[in-house]
Specification:
The complex is a heterodimer.
Chain A (H helix, E strand, L loop, with lengths): L3 H4 L8 H9 L6 H11 L4 E4 L6 H14 L21 E4 L3 H17 L6 E4 L5 H9 L4 E4 L1 H8 L4 H5 L4 E4 L2 H4 L3 H16 L4 E6 L5 H8 L13 E4 L7 E4 L17 H9 L4 E4 L3 H13 L7 E4 L5 H12 L5 E4 L14 E5 L5 H8 L11 E5 L3 H16 L12 H14 L4 H9 L9 H13 L13 E3 L5 E3 L2 H10 L8 E6 L1 E4 L7 E4 L4 E6 H5 L6 E4 L2 E9 L2 E6 L19 H12 L9 H13 L8 E8 L2 E6 L5 H17 L4 E6 L4 E5 L3 H6 L5 H4 L7 H9 L2 H12 L21 H11 L4 H15 L1 H11 L3 E5 L8 H6 L9 H19 L1
Parallel strand pairs in A: 1-6, 1-7, 2-4, 2-5, 3-4, 5-6, 8-13, 9-11, 9-12, 10-11, 12-13, 16-22, 23-27
Antiparallel strand pairs in A: 14-15, 16-19, 17-18, 20-21, 21-22, 23-24, 24-26, 25-26
Chain B lengths: L22 E3 L2 E5 L5 E3 L4 E4 L6 H6 L9 H16 L3 E4 L7 H4 L4 H11 L3 E5 L14 E3 L1 E4 L2 E4 L10 E3 L4 E7 L2 E10 L3 E3 L10 E2 L15 E5 L4 E5 L3 E2 L3
Parallel strand pairs in B: 4-5, 5-6, 6-7, 9-10, 10-13, 11-14
Antiparallel strand pairs in B: 1-2, 2-3, 3-4, 8-9, 11-12, 11-17, 12-13, 12-15, 15-16
Helix pairs in contact in B: 2-4
Classes of the chains: A alpha/beta, B alpha/beta.
Chain lengths: 853, 245
């Protein structure tokens, strides 16, 4: 555990109790722990970047523990050790996961108890009973472990100023996982508020390695609005530890052309599990986790204890798996990103990543889950599911060797989140708009927020912000004589507290195993009642597409959908082994721009191919002889006939999301060029469009210009026109409208009542878009859609990149490179006017039947 | 693609030939319009139901500040349907206003728009449960129900099957599922003796026709729904319908 560097460190600054504690365990504090202690003592906001296993969490708490024990904080205590009365929380620890907050509280309790420190530690999450929350307000603990939503909730209470007035430290754990989301926006605003309530507080951020540490440093510091991100927290980093040992599976089997199942590698995955004490098997989606788990047990001759862990499973079941891991009772766990974050789950000696790595940082964090010791190399095995993924794995492996990072950039904060924060602030106390604006602009994600937009948001919160000022009489916020904004009615605050939070996950439905029992009304029949156990939750949209009798894999078993009762999907165990509905989640993480560029480089540099498995290298060699290989800075477009259709396949390598958008826009343009496009399908790497006219011939004969087709101007009118008809915006609007407080979060049990009372957000969207397209909520919706669903910025970058660099290859038949995306056709739902088709086809069927009859 | 099979009923605002497929209720013939309006050609009568005007304002009064443009939007759509059919008689089948108290403050602009639609037409406001009384500033006849031909036009369906009526109130909607995709839309529902209209208002939602509220009205359970598409109205039989959760 000890390195020579650490041995030489002086222990100055470490309180005696702490020094003794370290010594008693034969440990010495890490350099970064002491550095952070000193920074904390000086009140310097600081970011600590350290890999998992580096004693990061303890480091984060050292300044706070030292301050609490060395009496820098005595003013807050009265009555001596017996009857401590604390009015304000001393340290707030905020984690992205409830489970992590609980885990850290548990881990911190040990040293606190062993050092016999007189410190009260408590957690507060959504699960904390109301009575305890109430007590926490009256008699707060020294250290509170909580989540961003709970901070927002506490800040909206009238006693927030007292509760946080004496706050000394805020510790933000796993900061890299928070900052690029709406929760990160909410937390940034909360931090700005806390600073106003407790001007002397010190912010400490803990993070895994990221591409741009300065952005996280800016996030931790209070910004001055005139200069963008000019204020930075201090930065402490540790040396990276041993380089990981990463291998790509060189399978004896044939690597598939397409698909994401990795079934071909099952025996090899199983063998790897056999050869190690404890393997973590990461996959990208829940459906892959279910499938892989299912298949592994199929071939589990040795009956190895292999478990399943993903976010949809029932919490109780997840905790059981976690406990078994910590106890060393498992040999392998198949998991999704729910296990990505820094909870310590025991001695993992191999990480297997099945499928595409997607990003260099992402894969590095996953690999970091193996071997929680800094000085021993982590061991990882990458399993590509198809041939393109082989190249992606190679790119990730090279990136990891260089320690390259590609975490996403900080984004501009959401206006819907700001609206929620403004209302919450007013719930606590009346605010002055000038003061609040300066405070908000001090939060890094909002440092570029204009005063005008801020005022729009305040107006939105107050009266809906409509140009037609119809709702003045129903205002939620009113101005006092002194010009302060206050809530108009106590009911407003109640409504706010019911709806606070930024995670509007897709609505989920519980999956409950039904119990069969004899029917009371129909003798001889059985009915399925509720009352069986809950297996977990799935997204509402997935359940919506099922009809009773459909089978699907979930919670490690094949289930038959029986029907919906209230808010629950009732299922039974299916007799059939093969689930009928295979997919219930697409990959959420797009291939990172950085990794994509490396993949293009590998593809465009034939002498690099020898590092790839032979079958993949051969595949590329055949591509070179049959069609062509684009250079790194070029984009290849191939055209060829197949069946009675004509295909155009482009290879942008920009991820499925950007390709979907591109496909929508390209088909519109092809339509205008009379190329009669019929459909398209997008993969992570390529895009295939097919149509009724020979597109290749049109290009060759100069009837169609590729550079015009891929011109940047498609992101203007074409995008607007398409969005006007698409459902994407509506989906996002529903989320923004809920976060912004325009519509209420749906609570279980409310679903059926009040049919005429609640208005569907789709209808509101239609009306608002028609009458006030620049409304602040539509601005928020557009920003989210462009970023989260369309990848417009990436598409723009791509169009610029390939401008003048498109190579066209007009072929007589499909090329080797095109095969993978061609195989996706039929597997992926073809994008288009699906909704109207459903109705049309159903009606057609009716007519067909009528004709037959 | 499937153009040759496409059911051309009434493309929204186009001069589509009428009567390709029509709804018959008790021998009377109607055209269903994708906006949710119903047109009786021989009587030259247009029927709309559950306009719920000023629903936005009524919800704002309860603290939900949803956009105040719904009245404008609903009247605008109604104006376009009226321009399309040019009826001599219009029946608004009840719940024309979401909340009469709020509707008393109807804007001048809305009042003018309504008066313009009424000009030169017989206009009936059937009383609904939301609007037993109507704003005093409105023209038109306020009646509890109206008999026209063999059918009675009323807001709330009379309990029990086999009544010759056209009603509203229930806001019927259908969920149609096919090949893993599901669509939920407002619809007309009829068993050819009774017809229940979809709600016309911009913010009005829908109740699934498989909900038990519909069961006593169509006891034979042999009904057809006419689902509102973007450009067409699509007939769908019961076997393709899905319940909501």
């Amino acid at each position: 555990m000890l390195t020579t560097a650490q041995m030489a460190l002086p222990l100055e600054g470490l309180p005696e109790t702490f020094a003794q504690w370290f010594e008693a365990r034969g440990w010495r504090p890490h350099a970064h722990q002491l550095a952070l202690l000193e920074a904390g003592r000086q009140g310097q906001d600081t970011l600590l970047i350290a890999p998992t296993g580096g004693g990061k969490t303890l480091a984060g708490f050292l300044p706070s523990l030292a301050d609490l024990t060395q009496g820098g904080d005595q003013g807050e205590r009265a009555g001596g050790s017996g009857g401590r009365v604390r009015k304000s929380i001393h340290t707030l620890y905020i984690s992205p996961l409830k489970a992590l907050a609980v885990d850290v509280a548990r881990n911190l309790n040990d040293p606190v108890a062993e050092m016999a420190l007189d410190i009260a530690l408590e957690t507060r999450t959504g699960d904390t009973p109301a009575s305890r929350r109430q007590r926490q307000k009256l008699n707060p603990p020294d250290i509170m472990m909580t989540t961003p939503e709970q901070v927002a909730l506490m800040l909206s209470h009238k006693d927030a100023a007292a509760l946080f007035g004496g706050l000394r430290f805020v510790i933000l754990d796993e900061l890299h996982a928070l900052t690029t989301s709406k929760r990160g926006d909410l937390l940034a605003l909360g931090l700005a508020r806390l600073r106003s309530l407790a001007p002397s507080l010190t912010a400490i951020g803990l993070s895994a390695t990221v591409a741009r540490p300065s952005q996280l440093c800016a996030y931790l510091a209070a910004q001055r609005s005139e200069h963008r991100l000019s204020e930075l927290a201090g930065l402490i980093t540790t040396s990276g530890g041993a380089k990981p040992n990463i291998q790509i599976l060189r399978s004896g089997e044939r690597v598939p052309w397409s698909g994401h199942s990795s079934r071909y590698a099952l025996p090899e995955i199983y063998q790897a599990v056999r050869d190690h004490a404890m393997a973590l098997i990461f996959v990208n989606t829940r459906s892959q986790a279910e499938m892989l788990f299912h298949e592994l047990w199929h071939i589990n001759e040795d009956n190895l204890p292999i478990a399943l862990h993903h976010g949809s499973l029932d919490v109780g079941q997840r905790r059981k798996v976690e406990a078994a891991m910590v106890a060393g009772k498992l040999r392998a766990v198949v998991a999704t990103s729910t296990l990505d974050l820094g909870i310590d789950w025991g001695d993992v000696d191999l990480v297997i990543n099945v499928g595409a790595p997607k990003g260099a940082s992402r894969i590095a964090q996953r690999i970091g889950r193996a071997n929680h010791r800094l000085d021993e190399p982590s061991k990882a095995l990458l399993i590509p599911a198809n041939r393109f993924e082989v190249m992606e794995c190679q790119a990730a492996l090279e990136a990891a060797a260089e320690g390259a990072q590609d975490t996403p950039r900080l984004h501009a904060g959401g206006l819907d989140v700001l609206a929620q924060h403004v209302l919450g602030t007013a719930c606590a106390q009346a605010f002055d708009a000038d003061v609040l604006y300066r405070e908000v602009a001090g939060a890094a994600p909002y440092s570029e927020l204009s005063r005008e937009t801020f005022d729009q948001v305040v107006n939105f919160v107050a009266t809906g912000g409509y140009a037609l000022r119809a709702y003045e009489r129903y205002a939620r916020l009113r101005r006092t004589k002194e010009g302060l904004w206050r809530v108009a009615h106590p009911r407003v605050a109640q409504q706010y507290r019911l709806n606070v939070g930024t995670i509007v996950a897709a609505p989920v439905i519980k999956v409950r195993l039904g119990r069969r029992r004899a029917s009371s009304t129909r003798p001889g029949k059985t009915t399925l009642s509720r009352g069986g156990k809950v297996l977990g939750e799935v997204e509402e949209w997935f359940i919506e597409q099922l009809v009773p009798g459909d089978t699907f894999a979930f919670a490690g078993q094949v289930l038959r959908f029986e029907g919906l009762r209230e808010m629950e999907a009732i299922v039974s165990r299916a007799a059939k082994a093969d689930p009928k509905i295979p997919i219930f989640e697409g990959g959420k993480f797009p291939l990172s721009t950085y990794l994509a560029e490396r993949v293009r480089r590998i593809l465009g540099t034939p002498k690099e191919w020898k590092r790839l498995p032979d079958q993949v290298a051969n595949w590329l060699a055949i591509q070179r002889s049959k069609s062509l290989i684009p250079r790194v800075d070029e984009m290849l477009v191939e055209t060829f006939p197949r069946g009675n259709k004509y295909y155009l396949v482009a290879y942008p390598f920009e991820g499925r999301m950007a390709h979907q958008t591109l496909g929508m826009l390209l088909t519109r343009r092809l339509e205008r060029a009379h190329a009669r496009p019929l459909g398209f399908v997008a993969s992570e790497y390529a895009l295939a469009v097919w149509g009724g006219r020979d597109i290749g011939q049109m290009i060759a004969a100069d009837h169609l210009s590729l550079s015009a087709l891929f011109d940047e101007d498609m992101l203007g009118d074409d995008l607007d026109a398409w969005l006007a008809e698409s459902n994407l915006m509506k989906r996002t609007f529903r989320i923004c409208a809920t976060i912004g407080g325009l519509i209420e979060r749906r609570h279980p049990g409310q679903e059926k009542s009040g049919r005429q009372m609640t208005v569907s957000s789709d209808l509101i969207y239609d009306v608002l878009r028609e009458h006030e397209p620049n409304h602040v909520l539509l601005q928020a919706t557009w920003a989210d859609t462009a970023q989260g669903l369309l990848d417009v910025a990436r598409l723009g970058g791509f169009l610029k990149r390939v401008s003048g660099r498109i190579r066209h290859s007009h072929l007589e038949r499909v090329s080797p490179l095109a095969v993978p995306v061609m195989l996706e056709i039929g597997r992926e739902p073809v994008a288009g006017e699906a909704q109207e088709d459903v109705l049309r086809e159903t009606a057609e069927q009716l007519i067909e039947e009528a004709m037959r009859g | 693609m499937a153009e040759q099979y496409r059911l051309s009923l009434y493309a929204w605002e186009s001069e589509a030939p009428s009567g390709v497929l029509s709804i018959r209720v008790c021998g009377e013939q109607f055209e269903a319009h994708p906006s949710g309006a119903l047109y009786h050609g021989t009587e030259r009568t247009l029927i709309v139901s559950d306009l719920h005007l000023e629903q936005g304002a009524a919800l704002a009064a309860r603290g939900h500040l949803i956009p105040p443009y719904d009245t404008h939007s609903t009247l605008d759509r109604l104006a376009r349907v009226i321009a399309h059919f040019d009826p001599v008689r219009v029946i608004s089948l009840g719940d024309s206003f979401h909340d009469v108290g709020v509707a008393e403050r109807l804007s001048e602009e809305a009042l003018t728009a309504i008066a313009r639609l009424q000009a030169g037409r017989e206009w009936y406001w059937i009383a609904g449960n939301h609007d037993p009384d109507l704003p005093a500033s409105l023209h038109g006849h306020v009646v509890p129900s109206l008999q026209l031909g063999s059918l009675r036009y009323v807001h709330e369906p009379v309990a029990g099957p086999a009544v010759q009526e056209v009603a509203g109130h229930l806001h019927p909607a259908a969920r149609v599922s096919r090949r893993g995709r599901t669509v939920r839309r407002k619809c007309f529902i009829t068993d050819s003796r009774r017809l229940v209209m979809p709600a016309f208002g911009a913010y009005t939602g829908g109740l699934n026709v498989l909900d038990r509220a519909f069961a006593p009205l169509f006891a034979s359970s042999d009904f057809t729904v006419w689902v509102l598409g973007r450009d067409d109205v699509y007939p769908v039989t019961k076997r393709y319908l899905q319940p909501d959760r």
